[in-house]
């Protein structure tokens, strides 16, 4: 009985160890602010976060759910719960999904899935909503397989995991493809489509042009880290477009060799996945994985890239395909399951049971050995910080007399000295209980990917010509101290009254109080 209890505890304990190793810096107080990951003490619940009218709903319904949650729990706690849930659910889910006969093989799947370049790169990019879909995917696949077997009781958990995946549009699409392939049930597919309605509705109601800047295809194309190029990076589950979020270990000479070893093990284990899963299920998951992998390659293949650029410029909503590396998610799950079964099959061929356990242990540690710098918050890159007091002061002043706010310098992302110089999405839209106007363009190297917000374009024009922002009818202007940003033209602040002169933020009030007529 003691041995049986230890076996049951092995998977959650392993998942807990992985979680602690990755998120250790979050034991300190504060907020981890990294690229798209912005948590604030209490995020206001505003209509533009539920159904944004001027931009595409990239964070629907994620922002609304965060706003609701922070009415109950503080933002610092919500962030820790969300990040811990990603690691725990990913590890336990993969360990439970793999049809292994040995506990050791389940642990291999758990560590392999929770310690991938995909997870590391998206974590540093701050795309924690997408990673919740990543964590939900093995649980969703398990529920779909139960539905396929005729267990209608699995429809409820299937809907729940699909809803978790659908908090971002990309996660919702991957969930829909996975359920349609594995469950082979119109009811299950319909339920999965239903939980995608929030962001689909937001797309239908937005005033923004749903077509995208074709320059984004080159900007977001998958990238390689070594001589294997983009294909090698994607095969290793990496390949994100942002070089700043790629761990140094991915450029090591060991990375291609490690990818090759994992692929060899996966090839050795796929036969077992086909044999142990219901007939056709492994083939269907492989088809979904292949489709996602093909999408990831679209932007990296010169001839095909032009076709994708035409597609995103012409077809509304096709911009979802620009950052195609996101769609490697099903391939990552399939790879980890097959690696675990390959390791189990290799261990079973060794007569000495002790030597077999050594083989499983070596494969279990292989992902960590190939990417050791994911530990301790990716080498302490996920260090929490405290918001300067100016943010609370400005939030209080704006809340007393709400109105449109312009955040300057006009840029989507900033590098703050108080955030250790790390790049992060402007936090003001989530700090202030008012609509905050920022630049919706994205600069990737020398490529500037255009946005959709006409109001942001009007503000850019005013700043370029030095025209007073007060003439645009904004209620407030906030000037932030950021690293390396150009000075705000003095003439642009004409007609504005300084009401808070802080160390990190200055707040200006529009004394003209004109109605917004120029948008």
Describe the structure.
By secondary structure, this protein is α/β, with parallel strands linked by helices. It has 2 domains: 2-380, no CATH class; 389-510, no CATH class. 54% of the residues lie in helices and 7% in strands. It is built from 22 helices and 9 strands. Strands 4-1-7-9-8 form a 5-stranded mixed β-sheet. Strands 2-3 form a two-stranded antiparallel sheet. It has a two-stranded antiparallel ribbon with strand order 5-6. Strand 8 and strand 9 form a beta hairpin. Helix 4 packs parallel to helix 7, helix 9 (169-182) packs antiparallel against helix 15 and helix 15 packs across helix 17 (329-348). The N and C termini lie far apart (70 Å). 50% of the residues are buried. Residues 515-519 have low confidence and may be disordered.
Distance between the termini: 70 Å
The SS-based structural class is alpha/beta
Number of domains: 2
User: What's the total number of strands?
Assistant: 9
Largest sheet: 5 strands, mixed
> What proportion strand?
5-15%
Per DSSP, the total helix count is 22
Catalogue the unreliable spans.
515-519
How would you briefly describe this protein structure?
This protein has 519 residues and is an alpha/beta fold. Helix content is 54%, strand content 7%.
